[in-house]
Predict the 3D structure of the following.
Amino acid sequence: MVRLKKLGHIGIRAPDIKSSVDFYSRVFGLEVSERTEEGAVYLRCGPDHHSHVLYPAGRERPGLHHVAFEVTDPEELERAASIFERQGVPIIYGPGPRDEPGIARSLYVLDPDGNQVELYCGMQQIPRHEATSIMPTNIGHALFKMSDLAKAEHFYVDLLGLKVSDRVRGVATWLRYDPNHHGFALGQARTPGLHHTMYHVRDFGEVERAADIVTENKLRILWGPGRHQGPGAAYFLYFYDPDGNILEVGCNMEQIWDESYQGREWELGAAVGGDFGGPAPQEFLDTLIG
């Protein structure tokens, strides 16, 4: 049998290319990779040159043009052609180079219903434009390093009205003003100042994407991606901005709706642990208490 790598793309005949491209790019979120003189439009949802192709239907019936599967290399294409020939499967092109954007070599056959099936290898890779920005949804919290945690709690809790969600006694306090586990936090430190600012993203996939973006832009990750084992239980990524400020992006923070909720007490080790992504590195702890 042929050893397929993955489903690669779908080709569709569209009666109105302009409106179809508008839908797939503006609404569905695909990006245009290339347009041909014949009117075909190649779109992508990831680094592959295309995952969806739109062809002008003209006088042909709108709908499926072809389906394509990726194989590992040209040798596998040749092996596939031999298998098809032995089995009497109609080969309509290849295997070989084809004047098709984004693909090095391909093989076209017909399935039992006469649908075109393409096998290919050597797909061109193109970074998606959206990967240039993280696009958080809103600011989440800030953690202030304080020289006297007890006095700080008095100010932010007793005077400003924030509620205590969790504590590591004498080390840190997590505070809330809405159901989010914390919208502000305090830490005991030798040098007062801002430790980090956190922004929400939609889901953990966005946290992972943020890690890729940070790496691509040669910024330094401090901790993560991971999920806090302790207060808030949120997914997270900490990294430095170009000026050395610590930023966090995260999602899925614990929600506290019970008005009778009493703040919990944590041991430091448990509070800075990670369900995955590992416990807080020493550098993180040093920035917190320093």
Summary: The chain has two domains: 6-129, 133-289. Residues 133-289 form a domain with the 2,3-Dihydroxybiphenyl 1,2-Dioxygenase; domain 1 fold (CATH 3.10.180.10).
